[in-house]
From TrEMBL:
The gene is murC. Coiled coil: none annotated. The keyword Cell cycle applies. Residues 119-294 form the Mur ligase central domain. GO terms for molecular function: ATP binding; UDP-N-acetylmuramate-L-alanine ligase activity. Transmembrane segments: none annotated. Pfam families: Mur_ligase (PF01225), Mur_ligase_C (PF02875), Mur_ligase_M (PF08245). ATP binds at G121, A122, H123, G124, K125, T126, T127. This is UDP-N-acetylmuramate--L-alanine ligase. It is found in: Cytoplasm. Its main location: cytoplasm. Its EC number is 6.3.2.8. InterPro entries: Mur-like_cat_sf, Mur_ligase_C, Mur_ligase_C_dom_sf, Mur_ligase_cen, Mur_ligase_N, MurCDEF_pg_biosynth, UDP-N-AcMur_Ala_ligase_MurC. Residues 317-447 form the Mur ligase C-terminal domain.
Amino acid sequence: MIRPDLSLPIPETITSAHFIGVGGSGMSGLARMFLDRGIRVSGSDRADSAALRDLAARGATVYVGHDAAHLGDADTVVHTGAIWPENPEFVTAKERGLHVIHRSQALHWLIGGRRLVSVAGAHGKTTSTGMIVTALRALEVDPTFVNGGVIADLGASSGTGSDDLVVIEADESDGTFELYDTAVALITNVDPDHLDHYGSRDAFDAAFARFADAASEAVVISSDDAGARAVRERITHANVVTFGEDSAADVRLSGIRTDGPVAFTLTADGESVDVQLRVPGAHNAVNAAGAVAVLRVLGHSLADAARAVEGFGGTVRRFELHGVAQGVSVYDDYAHHPTEVAAALSAARTVVGEGRIIAIQQPHTYSRTQEMYREFAEVLETHADHTVMLDVYGAREDPVPGVTGELVSGAFADPEHVHYVPDWQAAADYTARIARPGDYVITLGCGNVYQIIPQVLEALSRTEAAAV
């Protein structure tokens, strides 16, 4: 992993930019915005994808694989922390003296001093960002936005708007959320993660407090999340707005109903409004409360903000239905932390009815799996009827001996609730054998686990044909 060096100068002018790892949702979104600015764009990634093809159709030069020759005449190279230091494009760019900047610095350059809403938190920030963006558009505001995932109704993770307002998902994982000149900061929650970067919980909390206090207009923060409450005690900002079920919250959430698309009541300044979302799950009621709180800070009424948030249709890879075979619905969710897994499976439970939930879990990174395997096992055993456990998606990390999917499955209290199957085809076939009509199968993880879905659907179809 390459840690971002935020002390490096950001160029005043960029005429030709090359993106290393351009296929990711965040990086491809940035590349599209550079194209919107009339900047020449090239980029590479290790595998072909729809994102690469879309960028090529928009005029970018894209490559599959990494090679120093791909740099062309770029004057600036944009990278993520997920690439290896030995990446030939990264190494050559340094040797040639090009401007080499982290994606957060590229985003800072694009924002260019406009009024900024930054959404941070361990969980829920992609959904919350999507809610704010779609609601603003419904309120006839046209913001520029950069999200960590594709907003389903817009079909994009980024867009260049005409108004002087920018909404971004700000990444706390590597500290880069402190780089931005934020006007309104939203903190969804503060669940300890990324301690490999921060070193301690105290340092993690301190970073959130600095992010909040640096906001020029307001801080919006959860009143319910224990981590957020701890950070709130550190914040000295004069304008802090809270949201949640706590009776003292400025935007109070009550009466959550989860028997279908989640419904609830929001109350602020003595006014109440009933809300029903298009997406399920109590966690989305909380996300909506935070989004509405931000919209009120931006000048919109409670009623208008709530009506606008109701139109949010979700983000790609957040409880996304991919297909139905043999009466079995197959979903995908990006959840890769125990808290996120619990939220995703709890949302599924509210709509599955009499069916069962079969989770296909791909642990993400060796460090997180080694640190949290017991928590993953407990959450999966509690919220899923059965779990099919794959092996770890290492991402930027080298394998750690003994840290596999079997480490998680071995921590289940009842081994009958889990089956460790490292081979994907065998996992798909096993899932098809145990699934029954009415069940939900949900792939979980932020790696490439979603790519097993066609195998699962095909295996289900074969099972159906054999049954007939």
